Amino acid sequence: MKKQGMKLMMIVLVLMLAIAATGCGGGKTTPTELNSFTLGSSTAFDTMNPLSSYMQVTYEFFMLVYDSLVKYDENYNAVPDLAKEWSVSDDGLTWTFKLQEGVKWHDGQPFTSKDVKFTYDLMLNTGLGYMYSSYLTGITDIQCPDDLTVVIVTEEPKANMLMNTTPILPEHIFSAIPETELETWPNESPVGTGPYKFDSTGPNFVKIVKNADYFGEQPTIDEFIFVDYENADSLAQALMLGEIDGATNLNTAQMQQMSEDKNVSVISGEERGFMQIGINCWTDAASGGDPMLLDKNIRQAIELAINKQKIVDMAYNGQGTVGTTMINPGDFYHYEPTADELRDYDVETAKALLEESGYTDTNGDGFRENAEGAPLEFDLITIADNLEEVKSGQMIASDLADAGIKINNVTMDSGALYDSIVAGNYDMFIWGWGADVDPTVIMGLLTTDQIGGNNEPFFSNARYDELFIAQQAEMDVEARKQMVQEMQQIVYEEAPYIILIYSNNIQAIRSDRWTGFKQIPDTGTYFFNLTSYNYIKMTPVK
C-alpha cells in the first residue's frame, strides 16, 4: 500500500462534526461522554472503493468496515474472522473454510459463501484490488457447496493462503455496477460486515459507528471519525489543542513539540515498507525517461553517491534507518547484501562506474557528459507538501553533484506525480510503499505483469518473475525465504529502485483521554497494522 499521499488515508454530535473536521472553533467533547474517537491524518481518502484504493488511511477504514476470511492477531497469527475454521487437503491444493453463522451485511442482507466467491472471482478476473488480489494468484476454482462453506482449489500449494486479508464485498451491491465502471465507482456508502458501519462523510471527514449486530467482539469505541488536514503541522496543532484524539502519518518535524505536551503520547517505530527513488527503466519508445538511466552502472552510481545516513539524520530527524532492499531488516525475509554487493556511500566508486560507462566532464562545468556531449542530467520529482521528501531531494541533488551528476529538483502534487508515473513521463521520483506481513504484495510490485500498474519503474526480469510465482507455492519456509531473498538480490543489483530509508511511522494519541493503545513489537505502530486491536480495545480514561 502507498505510504504517502500515491498514496490508506475523522467526535462528536452531528452538529459539531463540521467544526471539529475543520479544526475551527469549539472544544472537543470528552470521550467519556460520547465515547467517540477522532483520528486525524495529513492525507485524505482517495476513494472508499477497496477495488481501486492505494492509500494507507483508507486501508484503515476498510479494516474496520469490512471483514476477511481470516485476520491477524497482535502477533501476526492467522485467527478466525468470517471463517470460523478451515482445513487443507493432504496435497495442499484444496482449502475448505467454514463460515460464521448469522452474519449480516450492514444493510441487513445475509452474508453467504457466494459473497466470498464473488469477491475473489471479481478480483481474479478484472485485476482490480491489486493490493489484495495478489494474494489470490494460483486459485483455479472456488466452490460454494452451501451458504456456510467455501472450497478454494489452487493449482499448486499456496503458502500465503492464510495471510490473505482481502475484504469480502457484498455481491448484491457490487454486481449491480458494470465491470467497466468498477475501478472509478466511488462506493459512496460502503456496506460491509465489519465492527463499524458507514455513517456519513463530508469534504474532509468520514464517520463510522459501531455495528451493534457485529458477530465478533464489540468495539469499546462507539463512533470513529477520520479527519484529514491540509498538512502535518495543522494536524499536530489540532491534536495538541484537543480537537482530535489521535494523529497518524505525522512528519518527524512535529515530534519534539508533541513530545513536550504532557497530554500527548508519541510513538515512533519502524514500519514495514520503505522510501525509495524510482528510476525509469522503460525501454519502450513511449518512455519519457532519459535513456541514459537504462545503463545499470548509472543507477548503481546514483545509489553509491547518496549519503543515506545523512538523509535519515537531517531530513527525517533520525527517525529511520538506512535502506538497502525491499524488505526491512527486522523481517524474516530480509536480504542482507554481502560486503561485495553493498553500495554504501562511496563517491569515488560512483565516479569509477560513470567513467566505465564513458561519462566524463568534457567542458569543465563540474558535470559529466557522454561521448556525444549529452549531459548526465536528470529530473527528480518529489511531492510538494511532503517536506521530508523535498529536503531529501535537495540533499540528493547536492550529493550527486559531487559525482558529476546534475539533478533538477521538481515538485508537484501527488496526483500529478501519479499521472507522470503511469505515463512513464519521468526520470526519477521519491515515493514510499508500505509492506504487508507476507512478502507477496510488496515483491509483486516489480513483476512484469504489473508494468502499466504498480510497477512504477517499468522493470522486467524473467528470473524475478519466475521466483515470484514459485515462492507462492513453496510450503517449506526456509526454501521460500531463499527465493524471496534472491528476488531482493536481483532488485538490488539492477537498481530500478534505490531504497533510501526504512522510515519510522509516527503516531500520537491523547493519553489524557484514552488508554489501551499499543505498539506492535519490532514492526511499527498499531495504527497501520493489519489488526484492529486499538480500535476494538482502547477505552476512555475515567
Task: Describe the fold and architecture.
This protein is an alpha+beta fold and 542 residues long. The protein has 3 domains: 153 residues, Periplasmic binding protein-like II (D-Maltodextrin-Binding Protein, domain 2), CATH 3.40.190.10; 105 residues, Dipeptide-binding Protein, Domain 1 (Dipeptide-binding Protein, domain 1, Alpha-Beta Complex); 231 residues, Roll (Dipeptide-binding Protein, domain 3), CATH 3.10.105. The protein is 29% helix and 21% strand. A hairpin with a 5-residue loop joins strand 2 and strand 3. The radius of gyration is 24 Å and the shape is globular. It starts with 13 loop residues before the first helix and ends with a strand.
List keywords for this structure.
542 residues, alpha+beta, D-Maltodextrin-Binding Protein, domain 2, Dipeptide-binding Protein, domain 1, Dipeptide-binding Protein, domain 3, 12-stranded mixed beta sheet, 4-stranded antiparallel beta sheet
Topology diagram in text:
Blueprint: H1 14-22, H2 31-34, E1 36-41, H3 56-65, E2 70-72, E3 78-80, E4 83-88, E5 94-99, H4 113-126, H5 130-133, E6 139-146, E7 149-154, H6 171-174, H7 179-182, E8 196-202, E9 205-210, E10 223-228, H8 232-240, E11 246-248, H9 255-259, E12 264-270, E13 273-279, H10 296-304, H11 308-314, E14 320-322, H12 347-356, E15 377-383, H13 387-403, E16 406-412, H14 414-423, E17 428-434, H15 440-444, H16 462-473, H17 477-494, E18 497-510, E19 514-515, H18 533-537, E20 539-540
Parallel strand pairs: 1-10, 1-11, 15-16, 15-17
Antiparallel strand pairs: 2-3, 4-5, 5-7, 6-7, 8-9, 9-10, 11-18, 12-18, 13-17, 13-18, 14-18, 19-20
Helix pairs in contact: 10-12, 16-17
